[in-house]
Amino acid sequence: MKVLHLIDSGGLYGAEKMLLSLVQEQVKQGLEPMILSAGERGVSEKAIEAEARSKGLPITLWRMKSGLNLKGSWSILKWAQGNDYNLFHSHGFKFNVLLGMYPENVRRIPMVATLHGYVHAPRFSKMWLYESLDRFAIRRIRGVVLVGEAMKKQLPGKLSSGHTVVIPNGLDISELQESSLASLDEPFKSFFENHDSVILGVGRLSREKGFDRLISAFSEFRNAFPKSGLVIVGEGRLRQQLEALIDELGVKDDVLMPGYCCTVPALLSRSKVLVMPSLTEGLPITLLEAISLKTPVIASAVGEIPKVLGNGEGGELLSDVETATIFSAIEKSVTDREHSGRRVDWAYGAVSKDYSSEAMADEYLAFYKRVLGTP
């Protein structure tokens, strides 16, 4: 079975890591997967492309004009038809729309999509338009994968339950643990040496990740614990706003925002706690990574997070994302190590059992066979 995975990536975050793990397992299964990584013309090698090459995974770079590029989508369609692909698997609204809008008798290749989560963009914004088109386009494809049960509430009402399936994200824990042993380069090395307690945030610098609240909470935490530090890994449109907030709060020397980096496992293994004050999530890979490395977790009760954390058995669930609430949760996690340790052990057992990359790939293969009608 030849599967063409389609993604336009902005970093190496949850969707990208899930896709790499899935393709790695599909190669072992004997499938012929290919990642088509799209980007604007002139864009150099993306993070997902570099990571795929380092893992020896099949990937095709495709540069095209941004936006609703019908000519570009038609070129991809003809290329895929010419290379005898059996299935399109889209990972993001761009290709859900660009290829999902074609009737299947024109596309001639069945299509499925994994929904990693919606950002709930402001009404009438560009992102809101894309999400609206996405919700229309996914009705025209063979099947939709949700990364968690909670996402069903976000689906269009006309999308039948028989059209969707829930397949949790998974990861290779042993490979992750090995990569966490990597040494830290600058500026991380000096930052960790100069701070006793480092708090970590990972994700796009966007409104729904709640990093403004995390920075404000850290400012209060640092007043009580002067040797503490905060690292936020990721890039995005809110960088200038977040940097201005850091300056305003006077914590510039104790906050590191390095942009995207590929050493998240090594950072997780050395951090006191991962904090995820998100307004919306699906099933964050970073959450699974932290648990697999036995790093305590504080997170919002959104998406699949409560389920993964056993409704609080495996980590601190925030009742809200107010500054005082986040501050209290961080203080409790850092000072009550025994309680944090019990939660970490519970979560590690749950993730080891239910969120492996092998189990994820098996479920996807069964899903593919069902939508294609093959034994």
From TrEMBL:
<protein>
    <submittedName>
        <fullName>Glycosyltransferase</fullName>
    </submittedName>
</protein>
<dbReference type="InterPro" id="IPR028098">
    <property type="entry name" value="Glyco_trans_4-like_N"/>
</dbReference>
<dbReference type="InterPro" id="IPR050194">
    <property type="entry name" value="Glycosyltransferase_grp1"/>
</dbReference>
<dbReference type="Pfam" id="PF13439">
    <property type="entry name" value="Glyco_transf_4"/>
</dbReference>
<dbReference type="InterPro" id="IPR001296">
    <property type="entry name" value="Glyco_trans_1"/>
</dbReference>
<dbReference type="GO" id="GO:0016757">
    <property type="term" value="F:glycosyltransferase activity"/>
</dbReference>
<keyword id="KW-0808">Transferase</keyword>
<feature type="domain" description="Glycosyltransferase subfamily 4-like N-terminal">
    <location>
        <begin position="14"/>
        <end position="174"/>
    </location>
</feature>
<dbReference type="Pfam" id="PF00534">
    <property type="entry name" value="Glycos_transf_1"/>
</dbReference>
<feature type="domain" description="Glycosyl transferase family 1">
    <location>
        <begin position="187"/>
        <end position="340"/>
    </location>
</feature>
